[in-house]
Prior knowledge:
Blueprint lengths: L9 E6 L1 E14 L6 E14 H10 L3 E5 L5 E8 L5 E7 L19 E6 L7 H10 L4 E5 L11 E5 H5 L8 E4 L5 E3 L2 E3 L12 H16 L2 H15 L10 H5 L3
Parallel strand pairs: 1-4, 1-7, 2-5, 7-8, 8-9, 9-10
Antiparallel strand pairs: 2-3, 5-6, 10-11, 11-12
Helix pairs in contact: 1-4, 4-5
Amino acid sequence: MATQQQKKFNILLVGDNCIDCYQYGTIDRISPEAPVPVFKFSHQETKPGMAGNVKANLEALGCNVKFFTDELCSTKTRLIDSRSKQHIVRIDTDVAALPLEVGCIDHINEYDAVVVSDYNKGVVSYELIEWLIKQFTGTVFVDTKKTDLVRLEGAVVKINLLEYSLLKSECSDLIVTSGKDGARYKEQTCKSPSVEVADVCGAGDTFLSALVTEFLNTRNMTNSIAFANRAAAVTVQHMGVYAPTLEEIQCQD
């Protein structure tokens, strides 16, 4: 059973920023110019992505979030068939983000937790994460695509199964998520609820955010992983990135 949040936690979030753009349309014919579908655009939606989506998820769970990132922002544009909800193609426009300087954050211990959402786009360096771990007296949570995790010892690190297969080294507090099969932490495996999946986009961001808030509530990592699995199960039932509320997550119990 998820724990009702007692207070508004103050979270320091560091990570790569992105805009997720969803362009919806229909496909009725094949182009006479090449064997490709003709996409007839109807409308589009934009949402915060990457660490911006983590921020949205934390805020949906009642947290106050201070977000440090680079002003330059990548864009991921997805063309989606309105009838089937099938993704046709994704177009990435990446920018060369500037890394945050080590020591650039003041009063770090005024926060309840530090969260790093590292998509390896340039904002977050190993040295920055190491500095955060050293300076912060509470728990540092890291979601990363970096591979030398022994350098992140002292943090709770969350990665997915593909990222795990690419590791050069591991750290002690490592959580490996594997979609519908749940998540593994040390010698334990926590299963995910069985739900109908519409879109897995953003599920990892939801998992991270829910893990952080429930751990601050309970200080129990196993229960927090179970709660995060239930939160991610809500997200995957929606198209595009989605930030579930506490009430929606509790309905998965």
